[in-house]
Amino acid sequence: AHRASLYYGNRFDSNITPIIPKEPSHLAAMWAFICDPDYSESLLNLSPGLFTTNSAFLKVPFDLERWQKVAEQKYPHGLPKPFSSDPTQWLFNGHPKGSNNPLQVAVARLVGYQWPRQTGSSFPDCPALEPDGLETLSDKDGIVCIPPVRGEAGAADRLLNLLATAYGNEWSSDVLGRLLSDADYAGKSLEAWLRDGFFQQHCELFHQRPFVWHIWDGLRDGFSALVNYHKLDRKNLETLIYTYLGDWITRCEAQDKDSGLTEDGEKTTAARNLKRKLELILAGESPYDIFVRWKPLHQQPIGWEPDINDGVRLNIRPFVSVPDVKAKGAGILRVKPKIKWEKDRGKEPQRPKEDFPWFWGWDGKTTDFAGVGTEPKGERHNDCHDTLATKQKARSKAGGT
Fold first, then answer.
1. What's the helix, strand, coil split of the chain in %, to 5?
2. How far is CA 245 from CA 121, 239, 250, in A?
3. Residue 329 CB partners (closer than 8 Å, separation 6+)
4. Which residue numbers in the chain have pLDDT < 70?
């Protein structure tokens, strides 16, 4: 079935067919007609293949007078302004109340994420938004630990405060119960949902491209942190390791001492193990590196140097590449996102072998692959690895630091 949306003159590709009325006054009637299920069925009859041909869209019989009457009944005050309560859409206003997924939106706001219209972007009939009052409850560095750490309240208490502020006078324990029930956590606590349910649901909601990462040490009551990936630069990763996790380790050591243990207890051991894995990501030595196939070798990240424009798929790889703390293939994430780093379809244009050796016949396993042959194959590999020494040499040769 086709999907219809109002067209505002943007660029489009062959998967989109703009239909522009010759008479602007006919727009509402055409919109009512095109949104009707019978229109989709007529399109399938006219063009039954996998892709509907552009010509088929204008071959469906259109009774202008009939659809003008339908439009008058459906849109007595004109076409409605664009609106979406779906947090996966750019038009979304970023407020938990009234959204399709209030808990997910509230967590995103808690770790400092904002939707485009909250950061100054505007769209036709959708202006940029003013602050909504939740900004003061957002975490500045985008790191919210589930247990209380470094003098900060635990994530559940902070989230509860944000929800109460968002709902105002409508907030109650019944509302919280309904939100948890809608998230399949009826009768359970907000902290239980954060620890066990949030991240998997977050991955599913945002099509396996999570932007709030749940990093943990593998223990149900151990160290866990919700991290805004958009803010997770090298400095904030160091803050996560040496400030938040460091404080947790110090507290666990004190508890071990108070308990009379002569060696690290379970929580201390798990936390130290997580610290080592995070330090592997920080250093970025192969195979815990970031690889971006469209960047030349001298521009490949050295250590944790993420560029959010490269996308979640590439930047999250080190976090699932380190040895698992619990779930198979998830590394230090609460669950494994359904992401693969197989080569993509299509071919790349010819690129210099020295700068893009992976386009020259990579065998799928060699680290520091230098390229082979006299002609590039152009295959779009996404799981290559280069050592720090190789990347640093290429960067130095190109005049970088």
1. 40, 5, 50
2. 36, 8, 9
3. 320, 336
4. 1, 401
Q: What is the pLDDT of residue 278?
A: 98
Terminal Cα-to-Cα distance of the chain (whole angstroms): 52
Burial class (CB in 10 A: 0-12, 13-18, 19+), 309: exposed
Q: What is the pLDDT of residue 401?
A: 66
Are 307 and 262 a contacting pair, CB within 8 Å? Answer: no
Residue that the structure tokens 């909504």 belong to:
132
CA 221/CA 144 separation, integer angstroms? 15
Q: What DSSP line would sit under 208-249, residue for residue? A: T--SEEEEE-S-TTS-EEEEEGGG--HHHHHIIIIIIHHHHH
In the numeric block, which tokens belong to residue 26?
């006919």
∠ CA(274), CA(277), CA(281), 5° rounding?
Answer: 135
> Per residue in 294-307, pLDDT tens?
999 999 999 999 99
Residue-level pLDDT at 1: 62
Cα 169 to Cα 257: distance, rounded to the nearest angstrom: 47
Q: How far is CA 287 from CA 255, 317, 319, 320, 388, in A?
A: 35, 10, 11, 11, 10
DSSP annotation string for 45-105: HH--SSS--GGGGGTS---HHHHHHHHHHH-TTSSPPP----TTSTT----STTSS-HHHH
Give dist(CA 52, CA 42) in Å, integer: 11
Determine contact, residues 93/121, Cβ cutoff 8 Å. no
Residue 316, token pair as written in the block: 């999250």
3-state secondary structure of 253: helix
One-letter amino acid of 363: D
pTM over 0.85, yes/no: yes
Write down the pLDDT at residue 353.
95
DSSP code per residue over 376-399: ---EE-------HHHHHHHHHHTT
pLDDT in tens, 278-295: 999 999 999 999 999 999
Q: What's the CA gap between 298 and 320, in Å, rounded?
A: 25
Give the alpha-carbon dihedral of 315, 317, 321, 324, to 10 degrees.
90
